[in-house]
Amino acid sequence: xxxxxxxxxxxxxxxxxxxxxxxxxxxxxxxxxxxxxxxxxxxxxxxxxxxxxxxxxxxxxxxxxxxxxxxxxxxxxxxxxxxxxxxxxxxxxxxxxxxxxxxxxxxxxxxxxxxxxxxxxxxxxxxxxxxxxxxxxxxxxxxxxxxxxxxxxxxxxxxxxxxxxxxxxxxxxxxxxxxxxxxxxxxxxxxxxxxxxxxxxxxxxxxxxxxxxxxxxxxxxxxxxxxxxxxxxxxxxxxxxxxxxxxxxxxxxxxxxxxxxxxxxxxxxxxxxxxxxxxxxxxxxxxxxxxxxxxxxxxxxxxxxxxxxxxxxxxxxxxxxxxxxxxxxxxxxxxxxxxxxxxxxxxxxxxxxxxxxxxxxxxxxxxxxxxxxxxxxxxxxxxxxxxxxxxx
Length: 392
Ligand SMILES: [Zn+2]
Ligand SMILES: [Zn+2]
Known about the structure:
Layout: E1 5-7, E2 13-15, E3 41-42, H1 64-70, E4 106-107, H2 108-122, E5 136-139, E6 150-151, E7 156-160, H3 165-174, E8 178-183, E9 204-208, E10 211-217, E11 222-228, H4 242-254, E12 258-261, H5 268-275, E13 280-284, H6 288-300, E14 309-312, H7 316-320, E15 329-335, E16 339-344, E17 360-362, H8 371-384, E18 388-390
Parallel strand pairs: 7-8, 12-13, 12-17, 13-16, 17-18
Antiparallel strand pairs: 1-2, 3-14, 4-6, 5-7, 8-9, 10-11, 14-15, 15-16
The structure holds zinc ion (2 copies).
C-alpha cells in the first residue's frame, strides 16, 4: 500500500502521511480472513508485527515499540501546517472546510469543523448547535500532549449519541482522519456492578474500526493499551496517573513473586507489573472484552517482557459468546521466563485458581467512594488469597 495515493476532501491527491500507519480500512468487515487470532503466537515470529485486528481484520494494531516510536512525531505539524481554533461552546461561525495540509495532517479543530458541517448537511445537527455537539473525539494513539494535535489519517474515533449510520458512512468516506464512528447510549459499556448483576450493554460501531490505543507513562516503561472503544469505558492518559504510580510504588516496595490484577480492565496495571519484572502476573476480568484486550495487550507489550510466546485460547468472536463469566476460565498464558496468565471470571472466585504464593494484589474496583465496600472487598481477599492487597 506504500505510495498509494488517496483523495483528500478537496479532491486533491496527497501522500499518506505515515507509510507505517494503518492502511485504509474501507471495505472492512466483508473479509472473514484474519479475524481469528492464531493460537500459540511466538514473540520471535515475524508475524508478530503484523497482528490482525480482531474487529476489522486489517493491520490496525501495532506492537508497543512501533507505536512508541511514532508518538513524538505523529501529531506534530509540518512547517506548512496551519489551522483555525474554534470555540466549542458556540455554533461554528462559518461553514467552510479547510483541506488537510500537503503533509496529510489537519488541525483537530478543522477536522471537527468538517465533521460538524457534514452532520449539519445530513440533518442530525442544526445550525444552532455548538461545535462540541459534533461528538466526542478520541484520538489514536491517545497520550498526554502539551498542545492540540494535527491529525494524520485514521487517527480519530468519534463517539456520538445522535449520529446515524448514513452520516457515519459519509464521515468515513469524506473525512480522511476518521478511523471509526460509534453511536453511544447513556451507559458505561461493560460491567458496572461488582455483583455482576444486570446485562452489560455496549455501544454500536457504525462505520470503520473503533480499536484504538492509549499510551500510559509509568516512571520506567510506557505501556500501550488497546481496546475496542464501543465495548469499554473511556479513559484518556493525563500524564499523571495515580493508579500507575501506586502499582509502581507497591511493586518496588514488596518485590512480589506473584502479582494479581483482580479487576484488570484492558490490563494496564497487571502489564505494568510484568514490565517491572514481576516473575508471575495474573490478570482477571469477568467482562469478555476486558479479558480479551488484557490478553491482547500482553502480546502488544510482550517484546518488553521476558516471554517467548503468548497463547490466546479463544478469539474475539468466541469470547463474545460468553460475555460475563463467574467461574474463572484461563483465556491466555505465556511461555518463557516470566509467566503471565489472563482469566475471565468473577474476581471473588479467583482464589479457586490462584497459586498459594500470591504476595501482592491490586483490586481496581469502580465503587471506590463506598468505603465500607472497599474495606470488605480487601478483607475478603486477604482471608482467601493472602499477601498484600491495595485498592488504587
Ligand atoms: Zn481494526
Ligand atoms: Zn503540514
